[in-house]
Design a protein that fits this description.
By secondary structure, the chain is mainly β. Helices cover about 15% and strands about 60% of the residues. It has a single domain (about 1-120), classed as Lipocalin (Beta Barrel). The protein is built from one helix and eight strands; from the N terminus they run H-E-E-E-E-E-E-E-E. Strands 1-2-3-4-5-6-7-8 form an eight-stranded antiparallel beta barrel. The termini are far apart. About 20% of the residues are buried. Residues about 20-25 have low confidence and may be disordered. InterPro entries: Lipocalin-like. Keywords: Signal. It comes from Maribellus luteus. Pfam families: Lipocalin_4 (PF13648).
Length: about 120
């Protein structure tokens, strides 16, 4: 169980760092507005990341992990800006610059070749 929990924590940290990256198809800030969800699961583990982008350039990120039936969650707040396909997030003074794209109800965030796909809720 400890190894699984360690893996889950490492995965959570990776996702939180990677969340704001993507190639952006729509150059308007409005395309990213709203609530987006990413879900992953495998044997004994599931993870849901929900990100909300508000019109006033603030947002929240909520991570919910279920590990062997135990649920853990964490919610963080951030500010953001977009410029073309670049998304800049600031959380607790830490700035993360990523690429993003929005196509219909899909938000794709990419960092270092890794893509995370969110669906509009």
């Amino acid at each position: 169980m400890n190894q699984l929990r360690f893996f889950a924590i490492i995965t959570m940290l990776f996702v939180l760092i990677s969340l704001p990256a993507c190639d952006k198809d729509d150059s308007s800030d409005d395309s990213i507005l709203g609530t987006w969800e990413h879900v992953e699961s495998w044997e004994g583990f599931s993870m849901t990341v929900t990100m909300t982008f508000n019109a006033n350039h603030t947002g929240t990120s909520k991570l919910v992990m279920v590990i062997e039936g135990e649920t853990e969650s964490e919610t963080t707040s951030f500010t953001y800006s977009t410029n073309g396909s670049t998304l800049t997030l600031t959380e607790s003074g830490e700035v993360t610059v990523l690429s993003f794209s929005v196509s219909g109800n899909t938000l794709t965030i990419t960092e270092d070749g890794e893509k995370i796909v969110f669906t509009r809720k």
